[in-house]
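Input chain follows. Return structure tokens only.
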Amino acid sequence: MTSHLKAGRPDLVERRAKALTMRNAGATWPRIAEATGVSEQQARNDVTKAIKENVHITAEQMLDRQKGIFNDIIRVNYPAAMDRASPNHHEAQARILETLRDEARLFGLNRPAKLEIGITEAEFGKAAAELLAVTGSAPLLELVRDADVLDAEVIEPSGEKWANL
């Protein structure tokens, strides 16, 4: 949205947003025109301009809009969620919890924390030396003795050229 529209005509911005929301929800042009108090042609123009304005929204503006929507959903449902006598008590609680889950997912609040696990070469060397001091070399010799032995011989490279094709 342009700063001109934001600062100079908040009523126009609201009307366009309402028209776009109604159209996205499946409202007809006559219904949108009636609800926003304009002609059908103006309702069409409002939706077209609202779409163009939304294309130029920055990621930060989108996040702000999402935060506002989440807050509105919670604010509207909160009274019924807290009133046990309300016929919509459980539905309002479920809607708030669903909104909070969506908000957490959008903002990455549930992603696992990154942990860096490891030790430096010096720490490994020190730990290995301490372990060898306690156990001696017997466990290492046992590991080598039980390992499969590879029977191989070293062949010196010849001057012949060859390809592995």
